[in-house]
Structure formats: structure tokens, C-alpha cells
Design goal:
This protein is mostly helical. The chain is built from 13 helices and no strands. Helix 3 runs parallel beside helix 7. The protein starts with a helix and ends with a helix.
């Protein structure tokens, strides 16, 4: 009787669990099955793919640098601050994670556009940000920064606060503590945060196409090229998608050891 009840429980849990796994895995397998592997090298070497690849690598690298330079101090502040406003800052930081990317693009346009809150003050100086490569970087940073900050904040929270107290007792300034003790200890968190932010920036579509447009050689990144090639030559779109899938799997492989720990 007890065995039958246990079997029914396993079935009741196993069936929806299996369906959930199929919903996630089958589309990826279908992508691999529909690929023309003989065409893959030539598809990725076409004149349209190489500029998009170059632009994607450039903009995502700049995005990673911005996340590192601006996100690290913010993550440290969130992890160490006990002010009541900190929770509100953290809540605002997570908004881009749940915000539809297109809405993020509209928000960026209302900020940096010709008549935007900030853009209207740049227009008299001849500075136009929308539909430029700079707009691509801003869109990618907008969606990728939260991933980096939250990853680094978690790593900073894992530090023993007594280390900072001892450093202060010995006369170390905040900057010296960060440079010699704090940053080296959270380097794994910084590395994983950068990998997540870079991968998220590489896959960005909605905010980019809304704020930066889809201009070959200037704002057309790999995801935008997939969208175009899906109508022009679906096999090229599949080849690019497989390349992006491989990059995603590679990032997951790099982070796997950290997540298991």
C-alpha cells in the first residue's frame, strides 16, 4: 500500500516535471536538427554576418567594461549600506530584469532622444545618440547591468565583515581595503557577473531595435540579423542562432562550477 502511494506520488510529480523539461529542451533540439551543418561555415562567413559579429563583440565588450566600472561600486554600496533607501535602490535595479525589453527601449528613447529628458540638452551641441552604435551600448548596458550588480552584491555579502573591521583598525582606507582585500576575494563573483552581463548583452534584441534601430554595420547586432535573415534566408538565421546557442552553453559551462558550489 505504501509502495503504491509512493509510486503515485512520483508519477504525479514526474509527469509535469518531464513536460517542463520537454518544453525547454525540444526547441533547442529542433534548432540543431533543422541546421544544415555543411553550410554552417559559409553561412557564418557571409558579408552580412561578419559586420554584425564584429559590432556585437565590440558593443558587448564596452558594455562589460561599463558594468565593471560602474556596477562594482554600486554592488558594494548595496551590500554594505544599511540605509532604508537601499532596499528601494535594489528594487529599482531589478526593474530592467522584468521590464519588457521594448519598453526599456522606449524609456531610453524618452531619455536620450532628440526631445528626451537628457537628449534635448545634447541636441544643441550636435550630439545625437538614438540610432547610433552608442545607443546599442546604452541599450545593452540597461538590460545587462542588473545581472552584474546582483551577482557581485551576492559575492560581497558573502565576505566576513570582520575583515573590513580589522583593516580599518590597522589604518587601511576604504580604497586600500578594496584594492588589497575586498576585490581579490570577490573576483569569482565579478567574473561570473561579467559573464552573465556579457551573455545578456549579446542576446539583447527588443531595447536595441527600439532605441538604436536595425542598420547594417552601425546598429545591427547578431540577434537583429537573425530577425532579418529569418525572412530572407532562414538557414542563415539558423546558423547564427546555433552560434549564439554555443556561446550561451559556453558561458553556462564557465559558470557551472561556481553554481554547483
Amino acid at each position: 500500500m505504501r509502495y503504491a502511494a509512493g509510486w503515485r506520488s512520483r508519477v504525479a510529480l514526474g509527469v509535469p516535471a518531464g513536460l517542463a523539461l520537454l518544453l525547454l529542451v525540444v526547441p533547442l533540439v529542433a534548432l540543431l536538427l533543422r541546421a544544415d551543418w555543411a553550410r554552417l561555415p559559409s553561412d557564418l562567413a557571409t558579408p552580412t554576418v561578419l559586420p554584425a559579429l564584429r559590432l556585437s563583440l565590440t558593443t558587448t565588450s564596452v558594455t562589460a567594461v561599463l558594468c565593471l566600472a560602474l556596477g562594482t561600486p554600486l554592488a558594494w554600496f548595496l551590500a554594505r549600506s544599511e540605509h532604508r533607501a537601499t532596499s528601494w535602490v535594489r528594487a529599482l535595479l531589478t526593474v530592467p530584469l522584468v521590464l519588457p525589453p521594448v519598453v526599456g527601449g522606449v524609456a531610453l528613447l524618452m531619455t536620450w532622444g532628440r526631445n528626451g529628458v537628457v537628449g534635448q540638452h545634447l541636441t544643441p551641441f550636435g550630439i545625437q545618440i538614438p540610432f547610433t552604435t552608442v545607443a546599442v551600448v546604452l541599450a545593452e548596458t540597461f538590460v545587462a547591468m542588473p545581472y552584474y550588480v546582483l551577482a557581485v552584491e551576492g559575492a560581497v555579502r558573502g565576505l566576513d565583515p570582520r575583515l573590513e573591521s580589522v583593516a580599518r583598525t590597522l589604518g587601511a582606507t576604504d580604497l586600500r581595503y578594496l584594492r588589497t582585500v575586498g576585490i581579490p576575494l570577490v573576483l569569482p563573483g565579478i567574473a561570473s557577473g561579467l559573464a552573465l552581463a556579457w551573455a545578456r548583452a549579446l542576446g539583447e534584441f527588443g531595447a536595441t531595435i527600439t532605441f538604436a534601430g536595425n542598420f547594417a554595420g552601425r546598429t545591427q547586432t547578431l540577434p537583429l540579423l537573425v530577425y532579418v535573415e529569418l525572412e530572407r534566408d532562414p538557414q542563415v538565421a539558423i546558423s547564427i542562432s546555433i552560434m549564439l546557442l554555443a556561446v550561451s552553453v559556453l558561458v553556462l559551462g564557465v559558470l557551472r562550477g561556481r553554481w554547483l558550489r
